[in-house]
Amino acid sequence: MSAPPSFEQQYPSIGPLIIAIADWYRQWRTSSHVSDLDNCARGDVERIAKDLGLTAGDLRALERTAHEPLLLPRMLSALKINAAEIARSEPAAFRDLQRVCALCDSKRRCETDLGEGDAAATFEAYCPNALTLKALT
């Protein structure tokens, strides 16, 4: 039994063009500032945010930063805090830690300090989660 013909084999004259357009669209979609929330009515965005315990502004900010890695797991590890235990025993606090981390304006410094191994000594100076993290240690 042979494999089915590829798209290019089925449509040799236009297959490469369609693939190029599809690749361009994928690239445009991921790099553009088109928001999935923009497709929702304002009231729907507010209801979604309320259901998540957020403001509509926070929900939109989270959507803008969704492609960025969350540094919280690395920070918890640097502070020798068991993330799984916190998620299990204090789920609301853990969700709040995640939200605050995702909305943080100090990500560059945090990432640098985590990479250099200095985060445990310096996080209190810039981390908006510092009080909660200190309470968990």
What would you note in describing this structure?
The protein has ten helices and no strands. Helix 6 crosses helix 7. 10% of the residues are buried. Helix content is 65%, strand content 0%. The N and C termini lie far apart (61 Å). The longest helix is centred in the first third of the chain and has 17 residues, at 15-31. The model has no long low-confidence stretch (mean pLDDT 82). The chain has helices spanning 7-10, 15-31, 42-52, 56-64, 72-78, 83-89, 91-103, 107-116, 119-122, 130-136. It has 137 residues and is an all-alpha fold.
Strand content: under 5%
Give the termini separation.
Answer: 61 Å
Provide the helix percentage. 55-70%
What is the helix tally? 10
Low-confidence stretches: none
- Element order: H for helix, E for strand: HHHHHHHHHH
Shape: extended
The radius of gyration over CA amounts to: 22 Å
Give the integer mean of the pLDDT values.
82
Number of strands: 0
Helix/strand/pairing category: mainly alpha
- How would a crystallographer describe the biggest sheet? none
